[in-house]
Design a protein that fits this description.
This protein is an alpha+beta fold. Helices cover 47% and strands 23% of the residues. The chain starts with a strand and ends with a helix.
Length: 286
Amino acid sequence: MDTALFSGSLVESDRILYTPSTFARTNLIHLQETGSLRALKPHTSRRENLSSYLCFIILEGSGTLEYNRESFALSAGDCVFLDCRKPYQHRCSEQLWRLKWAHFYGPNMAGIYEKYAERGGQPCFRPSGLAPYDAILTRLFETASSSDYVRDMKIFEQLTALLSLLMEDSWRPEGVPRRSQRRCNLQQVKDYLDLHYREPLRLDQLSDIFYINKFYLTRIFKEQFGLSITAYLLSLRITHAKRLLRFSGLSIEKIAQECGMQDANYFSRMFRKVEGVSPGEYRRQW
């Protein structure tokens, strides 16, 4: 780990180049670099093919970002979240900026960023306030510069909090036309699934009950709740199955029926797909 106050002709920065443990690199979302900088002159930074993800906030000033063949104007109050495996460049304007940032990586970050994008997450956006981001980035810097013997776990906790914040603040449901109407209708669909998941259900049946085209229903449900109807229904059923496997003496066949799956073999395949073990093995483990 290297802590440095760097002053050059373009920027003045206080940064940490962090080397995580082998355990953290292999198993955790881990920190690579974090810090803050103040621009002294307009300048451009270019990167590509980095095994890294970057989040930075603009506390003062303005500039531009070029990423994924798009250009974005940046100003104080904006937040940026990038997959640095793709080429990008950011340029400080005459209104010199002040930034805080963190570069990080992990074995599951590609899937997390993909989910971020699926939910409507943008490379840059304006959250309601930067204070929560500022606080997390400050804690990251303090933890990384400490001698805490569990700092990799604490860094993982703080990076997870940062990712949760990014997921929350990037999602703008009010930006979708007629969103309030969709939310009302699809909350009713979700409530219906929560109540009737133990019954055999088909998409055509839901379409008829709620007078919604099934293709439209499938697409908007996933937009709103982050899961397809099939995936959400399966999650409900597997959760109920786990309760029955642990706290009842019912047979696998009966549990399949209780979860709305009449075919025990299909139930077993789906259970293994979600939990990684068969229903019988899950019962023995617990």
